[in-house]
Amino acid sequence: MRDYPGDRVDLRSDTVTQPTPPMREAMSKAAVGDDVWGDDPTVIQLQEMVAGMLGKEAALFVPSGTMSNNIAIKSQTNHGDEIVTHRKSHIYLWESGAYASLAGCSISLVDGDWGQMSPEGVQNAIRKTAGSNSHFPDCKLVCAENTANVGGGSIYQQEALDGICKVAHENDCRAHLDGARLFNAVIGSGTGPARMVRDFDTISVCLSKGLGAPVGSVLVGDRETISRSHRWRKTFGGGMRQSGILAAAGIHALENNIERLSEDHIRASRLAEAISRMSSFSVELEGVQSNMVYVQCDEGSAKEVANRLASRGVDVSEETDSIVRAVTHLHITDEDIDRAIEAFEASQ
Ligand SMILES: Cc1ncc(COP(=O)(O)O)c(C=O)c1O
Fold first, then answer.
1. Is the minimum distance from the CB of 14 to ligand 1 under 6 angstroms?
2. Does residue 149's CB lie within 6 angstroms of at least one atom of ligand 1?
3. Which atom of ligand 1 is nearest to the CA of 208?
4. pTM of this structure
5. What is residue 210's predicted lDDT score, i.e. its pLDDT?
6. Contact at 8 Å (CB) between 183 and 261?
7. Residue extents of the structural domains in the chain
8. Which of 71, 86, 184, 224 has its CA 20 to 30 A from that of 8?
9. Is residue 65 within 6 Å of ligand 1 at its C-beta?
């Protein structure tokens, strides 16, 4: 059921969700304080809740996933260190080079199918100053992403995540997980959140994607790292005041919107299967594992296809010149998927 008025089928991203009436009610009733002073009870409740769900000591509420990732990088590296991540990761592609501009780090990139790194790939990408006659920077942080967005929303096998953390730690690096869509990975894999992130030192979880909150991410880890992160949140301008209003939306999302992510995954699969049967488009079905469908436009550019879909009331995002992306979320119904399939058919 669509919870907000609108006659478009907005598949551009799961970030477009609107707070639902019960979420708005929870926000309006939130007890608040000044979180920069550390006395907002609802923020404290959210932080303890997420740390508990992930089996870690502490958590920090921050305005965005980008800030969360970059606080994690800043808190676990020194200026001049190097980080390792996938060539298609959000940290590398879509965060404005903040690993360099804010943390002063260089980056070593790993390739791999579906936006995923292998432990071997990570091992090969790690460079250490010691033994290099000071030619190499010191890699101090390995960053994985689950689900892997530009990897099609793919979900890592648990052994690969464990293996990546093992390689990181053996090389005296910390391990960070960009879990913007951690709960999509949890629901899609059936692995519990604490088990999934067991070996990671820090994890960033977004509340404002599939979970449906309007704003906010939570950075989770050990007490000492989160306490350092508190300082960098301030430096990056992310200290918020009566942010319990926003934290209440996050708590509501975690209490109500995790299990239902499976509906988004089922709808994405149905859309992907239907599009894959159309002659002008291809979809690698193997990679459709959560709420995203990356569609290769075999005839016409992504822009042309997106415009044709838009003229039929269906919005998608253009990922490259030839790929459009459709993302299912809280406000996408079965009828919307029918309409999207018809629009793709008519846009060939
Ligand atoms: C995998 C991933 N990480 C991080 C982010 C950043 O989140 P935000 O838009 O809140 O900065 C996104 C945003 O889409 C994302 O897809």
1. no
2. yes
3. 10
4. 0.97
5. 94
6. yes
7. 9-16+260-346, 31-256
8. 184
9. yes
